[in-house]
């Protein structure tokens, strides 16, 4: 295995440009995800001019706007952030499912990495835990994924 070429993306922002597309719904949670994502990108060498935040009404709206952002050719990667919290109706299932499927489709069809930082939780407490308390910050995690994928694509010969 020593002679097998391995390609990895690193975690250095260099001249990469990032869009953070985040929902306003459940903004108490999402604002923490945004802070985590921005902090992670800055800690890995990005400057504020390399990061742009775009707000949308809710998680269901993320795929539509992320597609527009990805096809603009202005960004090397997109970080999609939101929080869908289960309620007493099936609304959660529709929103969470369509959001996840739509974001995956955008990434596949455009070739632009879309990091999935949309929380899907049963309670507000679980969402808050994943937005920077007990379970780390999933916004920061998504930003690191976006950074690594953008660098990986630059290193690939295809």
Number of helices: 5
CATH topology: Rossmann fold
The percentage helix is: 40-55%
pLDDT averaged residue by residue: 95
Major sheet attributes: 4 strands, parallel
Helix/strand-derived category reads alpha/beta
The amount of beta strand, in percent, is 15-25%
Name the CATH homologous superfamily.
Lumazine/riboflavin synthase
Widest sheet: strand order? Answer: 2-1-3-4
* Radius of gyration, CA atoms, in whole angstroms: 16 Å
Order of helices and strands: EHEHEHEHH
Architecture per CATH nomenclature, i.e. the level-2 architecture? 3-Layer(aba) Sandwich
Shape: globular
Total domain units: 1
CATH first level: Alpha Beta
State the separation between the terminal residues, measured CA to CA: 22 Å
Low-confidence stretches: none
**Count of distinct strands:** 4
Structure described in brief:
It contains five helices and four strands.
Notes on the structure:
- The chain is α/β, with parallel strands linked by helices.
- It has one domain (18-152): 3-Layer(aba) Sandwich (Rossmann fold).
- It has helices at residues 27-43, 62-71, 91-110, 124-130, 138-155; strands at 18-23, 51-56, 77-85, 114-121.
- Strands 2-1-3-4 form a 4-stranded parallel β-sheet, sandwiched between helices.
- Helix 3 (91-110) links the parallel strand 3 and strand 4 (114-121).
Please tag this protein with its features.
globular, 158 residues, Rossmann fold, 4-stranded parallel sheet, alpha/beta
Chart the SSEs and their pairings.
Blueprint: E1 18-23, H1 27-43, E2 51-56, H2 62-71, E3 77-85, H3 91-110, E4 114-121, H4 124-130, H5 138-155
Parallel strand pairs: 1-2, 1-3, 3-4
